[in-house]
Design brief:
With 325 residues, the protein is mostly helical. The chain contains 11 helices and 2 strands, in the order αααββαααααααα. Helix 3 runs antiparallel to helix 4. The longest helix is centred in the C-terminal third of the chain and has 29 residues.
């Protein structure tokens, strides 16, 4: 497929926002169970949620550049019964609304302890909102991943690993940003977020490598005969059916060399996983905010390469015909 940069920025930006909100939810949950310090927690969660919301808004803005008629975007939500894209269109603003409510409640300290047990663990109203936001976040992850995983004719995408990778990569980037954010605004939480970032990044590495190995061993179910709908055993192709370019020749193939694809693969493996892990370990060891922030920046840049590779690697069956001259 031909990667669209609007979709690349959409999926990576909202991934950061989703991951950061999950990090905030995790931190508040641990604090409610008296497993983490709670000092200055209100403003930490408020500002963190606002930052997560900015990334979600950035992804939403990027999505409009992928639309031929942005004024008709609302129609995308009308097919929610059958379309994962429609479900994503509904899940994204729902999550954004919950994140906004969560941020505002923390900022103005509109919180109430609903329940406290004998050991001191407490259930706060903001934690109830955060739980709803967490459910909306995972729903959005699943909807985004299933847009691609449900396409049976694109074998590289049609796998549970597609959804798993979207969840793990987005969560890892969000936790990485939260680690750097915590090192400035809540230093006592830095180690908690840093360790979880390392764990999630390693899990994402295992999952992404598994998908690369799977895709490398795929055998195409389509042939020139099935692409053309002709059963004859000997077919000689003279042209791709067009005197000039068309949507078939532009949008379904990346027009790049195999050498470039291999280079992009190694670039994203290094910048999404290896380098950020090294920077995270260094940053946690030396308590350096700059190093922790660099880990997030390098990882996000790497995710842009990863997402480009994800789209480019998918080989549409129609390319058997339209990419042959």
């Amino acid at each position: 497929m031909n990667p669209a940069f609007s979709v690349i920025f959409l999926t990576t930006l909202i991934g950061v926002g989703q991951g950061m909100f999950l990090a905030l939810f995790s931190g508040q949950t641990y604090s409610a169970l008296e497993l983490l310090p709670t000092s200055n927690s209100t403003q930490f969660y408020a500002l963190g949620a606002f930052i997560a919301l900015l990334f979600l808004i950035g992804g939403l803005i990027a999505s409009f550049f992928h639309l031929g008629h942005p004024e008709r975007a609302w129609r995308a939500a009308t097919q929610w019964r059958t379309s994962w894209l429609s479900r994503e269109v509904i899940a994204l603003p729902l999550m954004m609304g919950l994140v906004l409510v969560y941020a505002v409640m923390h900022y103005f300290e509109w919180d109430t302890v609903l329940f406290t047990n004998a050991k001191g663990a407490r259930l706060q109203l903001t934690l109830v909102i955060a739980t709803l936001g967490m459910l909306a976040t995972f729903t959005l992850f699943i909807c985004t991943g299933m847009i691609y995983a449900c396409l049976k004719f694109l074998q590289e995408w049609h796998s549970p690993l597609t959804v798993i990778n979207y969840i793990l990569l987005g969560t890892a980037s969000g936790f990485a940003l939260t680690t750097a954010f915590a090192s400035v605004n809540a230093p006592e939480l830095t180690r908690f977020y840093g360790i979880w970032t390392i764990i999630i990044t390693v899990a994402a590495l295992i999952s992404r490598v598994a998908s690369l190995i799977r895709n490398a061993g795929l055998k195409s179910k389509s042939t020139l005969q099935t692409a053309l709908g002709v059963r004859h055993s000997k077919i000689q192709q003279k042209s791709m059916g067009f005197m000039g370019g068309s949507v078939n020749t532009r949008d379904f193939f990346h027009h790049q060399t195999l050498k470039l694809l291999k280079s992009i693969k190694w670039i994203f493996l290094l910048t999404v996983f290896v380098i950020p892990l090294v920077l995270l370990i260094m940053g946690l060891k030396n308590q350096q905010t700059g190093t922790l922030l660099a880990a997030f920046i390098v990882q996000y840049i790497g995710l842009l390469f990863e997402r480009w590779f994800f789209f480019a690697q998918a080989n549409h069956p129609q390319n058997l015909y339209y990419q042959t001259v």
